[in-house]
User: What shape does this take?
Amino acid sequence: MNRLDGKVALVTGGARGLGAATAKMMALGGATVLITDLLDDAGAATVAEIEKAGGRAAYLHHDVVDEAAWAKAVKHAGETFGGLDILVNNAGIASDGKSIEETTLEAWRRVIAIDLDSLFLGIKHSIPALRARANRWKGGASIINISSIMGLVGMANAASYIAAKGGVRLLTKAASLELGPAKIRVNSVHPGFTETDMVKNALKDMGRRAGEAGENMMKDMITARHPIGRMGVPADIANAVCFLASDDAAFMTGSEVVVDGGYVAQ
Ligand code: NAD
Assistant: This one.
């Protein structure tokens, strides 16, 4: 038996990157997956890939900062797939590499809205649906919040991202205490640098600032911060998310799962 058989998952930002890898792995594990994102073509392509592999998925356009859209997304999961058992709050953006002194309040608020406020909205609006089916599973329902190593340690020129991801870490713990009695587990995942479009674009930006050959130099520098000798690949993170979603993690809530090749061990 697959470990997510019969469960319905909603994965935000599931069109590409870590979200797409998670959606695909969950579907392979037996879950039915509602992928939401702003990138409609990429979202549809991810659904097509899942279906081609024999899985079940659907796509919904959904801006995670829009509260009304959250209510619709949870309703959509209920109407299309019969309920909701797993919420993966994955959608996120990087900050723009500026120092605190150079950052406008508007730019700060945009990152906090997408990378932190949206998780509050996602948790809040999915609680009734998750609670309704939690007793079906040994491990109850599961919310997985994607934070970062940048929610555990700091980095210069990324203050809004770090503040948001640090907020996600403790929002997770607060929610786990409130929702434990309802059999809804809430955990955070803290990826190290992982090869996705977000990181490729950030490396390009950092590289441009560092001058000629900067991008490769930045990549080597960042890789060297991971004692295991490489950056992550999306499947590294998806494995941890699928574990937390499954009944194998029935006794885990309020925890922070670090998947970073040793980045924060030093
Ligand atoms: P990505 O840019 O490849 O994917 C992010 C997805 O989120 C995109 O499909 C994007 O369209 C979507 N998204 C952005 N804003 C949205 C919004 N307002 N509403 C709905 N969808 C929205 O990035 P990724 O690397 O796959 O990142 C996924 C998550 O993992 C993010 O929360 C990111 O902060 C976190 N993370 C990534 C890394 C890494 O190294 N890649 C490390 C730590 C944490």
Q: What stands out?
A: The longest strand covers residues 184-191. The mean pLDDT is 96. The chain is about 50% helix and 15% strand.
